[in-house]
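Narrative progress, year one. The postdoctoral researcher (J.K.) led the effort to move from monomer predictions toward full complexes, under supervision of the PI. The following entry was the first complex the group processed end to end, covering 499 residues in total.
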Amino acid sequence: MEPERSIAPRGVEANVESEWPLSLSSTGASWIPPRSECGVHRHEDGVAAGATPTAAHRMPLRVFHSVLEPAGPQAASITWLWWITLAICAAVFVIVLGALGAAMVRSWMRRRDASASGDASMLGAAVAAGVGLTVVILFGLLVADVRAHRIMSSFGAASAVSIAVTGHQWWWEIEYEDATPSRRLKTANEIHIPIGRPVVFKFASHDVIHSFWAPNLQGKRDLVPGIASAIWLQADRPGIYRGQCAEFCGRQHAHMAFDIVAEPDADFERWLDAGRASAREPQGEEAMRGRAVFLARQCAFCHTIRGTGASGSIGPDLTHLASRGTIAAGTLPNSRGHLAGWIVNSQTIKPGNQMPPNPLEAGDLQALLAYLEELR
Amino acid sequence: MMRRCAICALVTVIGAGCRVGVYRDAAQATGGDPARGVAAIQRYGCDTCHVIPGVQTAQATVGPPLDAIAVRTYLAGELPNNPANMQEWIRHPRTVEPRTAMPDTGVTEADGRDIAAYLYTLR
C-alpha cells in the first residue's frame, strides 16, 4: 500500500496509449478533479489501515474527454464523418475562393481591354459544372452520414451487457440488468464496462430531459421522461472515459457528469461480483458507530446501503461508495475531506441539489466518515 | 494622461513586488511552495468546508473562513499561530483537538508544508 498520494500531470493522463494495466493498489484510479486543475490518485484509505484491501481494483488511465479521440467503433464513425466533412468543406472553400479570385482577375482584365467580349456559353458551362459538383458532393456527404449512423445505431450481439440508466437532477442511476433479479446491480455515476464487448444502454428519466454523452464512445442520446430509448456502444481500449449531461436540465446541469470505466473482461466480472455483494460489516468501533449514525439520522431515508436497513431511493445507492472515484456525479474527488464537506453542507458546493445540509455533531461526522470509507 | 499612466504602472509594480514578498516570506517560514499549496487544498477537499481567498472553489461555510489566517493569534481556538502548529493542525486535527469536526484527511508532510505556505500568504 502506497502511503502517499501522488500527483499525475494532466499530460500523462491524457495519453491514451500509456501502459496498461497500471497497478495502483488500493489507491485506485488516477484522475483529474473536475473542479480543479490538478490530477490525483484516488484517495488512500487512511481509516481502515488494518482492513484488507479486498476491493483493490485495478483502474485504467483516464482518457482525455474528446470527440476526436474515439475508443470504439461508434465514436470512430462519428470522428470519421467529422474528418470527411471537414476535408470536403475545406476543398470547397478553396475552390470557391479560387473561382472568386479568377472572376475578379477576369473582370479587371476585361475593363482594361474593352474589345474582349463576354462568352455566354462559358458561363452556362460553369454554372452547370458548379451545380453538378454541388449535387455530387452533397450526395457523397449524405452517403457518409448514413454510413456513420448505420454503425452508430445498429444493435450488436445478443451477448451484450445491458445497463439501464435513469437521469435524475443531478446524478445518474445505473442498474446492471440480469434475468435473475438477485444478480441485478444498482449503483450510481460510475459505469464499468468490459472492453471488446457490445454494451446496451437503456435510458429513462426521473424528472426532466437529460442527455447521455460520452464523446469518446458514442454520440448524444436524450433521456426523455416517459419515452424509452437505447443505444449501444463498445470500447476497444481500456480507459476511464468521462461523460456529461448534454441537455440543460436545471441549475446544476454542469455538475452532472459520469465516468465509464472500460476494463478487461476478467476485471469487469470481478467488479460486478464485488458490486452485487452487500456492504461489509464495519470494522472497528468508530465505523460501527458510523453505521448507527447513518441509520439513525436522515441519511437512510434517501440512500440505500444493501445489508443494512437503509433502503431509500431518492439519492444514489451507497453500498460501495468508497470504491467510486468521485462523489456528487463527478463534482468532487472521493476523498475524506471532500466527503465531509459534502455531507455537512452540499449546498455551497452544488447549490440546489436535493441533499439537505446535515449539521451532525462532530463525533458523529467523524464516525460516519470512517464508516463510509469502509464501503468498498 | 501620461502622469496618470505612470502612477498606475508604479502602483502595479509596487503591488506585485509586495505580493512576491508575501509569497517569499510564506515559503521561507514554512519550507513549502504556496503555488503548489492551492492544488493541494483542492485535492484534499479543504475547499469543501472553508472560504479561502484566492481559491476559486473554496466558497463553503462548514468551517470558519480562512482570510487573514496568517495574522491570526490562535489556530483552532487553542494553538499559537506558528508554522509548526499550522502544519500539525492541518495534518492531524483530531490529535490536537479530539472533539473537532475537521477530519484527518491524510495530508502528507510535504503537502502540509505547501498548504501552510499558501495559508501564510493570506494576510
